[in-house]
Amino acid sequence: MLSFSANRRIATCLLVNLLSSICIVFINKWIYVHYGFPNMTLTLVHFLVTWLGLFICQKMDIFSPKSLPVRRIVWLALSFCGFVAFTNLSLQNNSIGTYQLAKAMTTPVIILIQTTYYKKSFSTKIKFTLVPITLGVILNSYYDVRFNLLGTVFATLGVLVTSLYQVWVGAKQHELQVNSMQLLYYQAPLSSGFLLAIIPLFEPLTGDGGIFGPWSLPALLTVLFSGVVAFLVNLSIYWIIGNTSAVTYNMFGHFKFCITLVGGYLLFHDPLSLNQALGILCTLAGILSYTHFKLAEQEEGKSRLAQRP
């Protein structure tokens, strides 16, 4: 019964993450296209609203904050800022295809980090599920892959920092014995402070396109709504990684990418080539294989524990 209850919670959180992540993609696209709101500033708003949401949850006794020394989470907060900065720079200096291909490398890098530094083992079957997923990403983006030195540097740094951030989200929850809300409650304002320090290097603060620019009321309300959805995204990410693993979250990320492509085709009539359709099928085959092997390994582990005297 406990196992069923745990699986139901995981399924619910995955569904919340799926719906909120897809929702925020389209909201952010609307904000960028119709209002020209700057990308990193929008991320700052997302984390400030996330912290405000957690503060309200704490006042409503939904969770109890746990005192954490800043030095124990400062690298987590910095890695988040690096992840935002380098992925934005990668997107600015690479084609969409190159950017997506680089993002797909996050999963194998996470496996490498966890194997090397956290002594976590992954079966050969699990590693082989990366093959159809990578092939699917290549089929989706090969027509738009173009390399240049600066773009490759930013893409590589983006993959490394993103992988570290996702690994640390799970590792810190276990290391500090905190849940997703307790960790995010401290990390969100710290990351916001670091982001505020680096935003002037990339985006204007005043005038048109600046955080203190002359924004209309509809623009501000849409940005605020985006922040509320981001609260659900951030909280579900922390919960998923803390209760499953960074690799499982990455696999789910590939699934969301497929759903977003199909959704864009069905809802907005975005073009979808035969290669992209094959890429989606390959990616989904890899995700289903990973899910099957992961569940089989969990059942095998439970059987071994039950057989112990």
TrEMBL record:
Keywords: Membrane, Transmembrane, Transmembrane helix. Putative transporter. Residues 12-290 form the Sugar phosphate transporter domain. The keyword tRNA processing does not apply. It comes from Oryzias melastigma. The keyword Transmembrane helix applies. InterPro entries: EmrE-like, Sugar_P_trans_dom, TPT_transporter. It is found in: Membrane. This is Solute carrier family 35 member E3. The chain crosses the membrane at residues 12-31, 37-57, 73-91, 97-114, 149-171, 183-202, 217-241, 248-268.
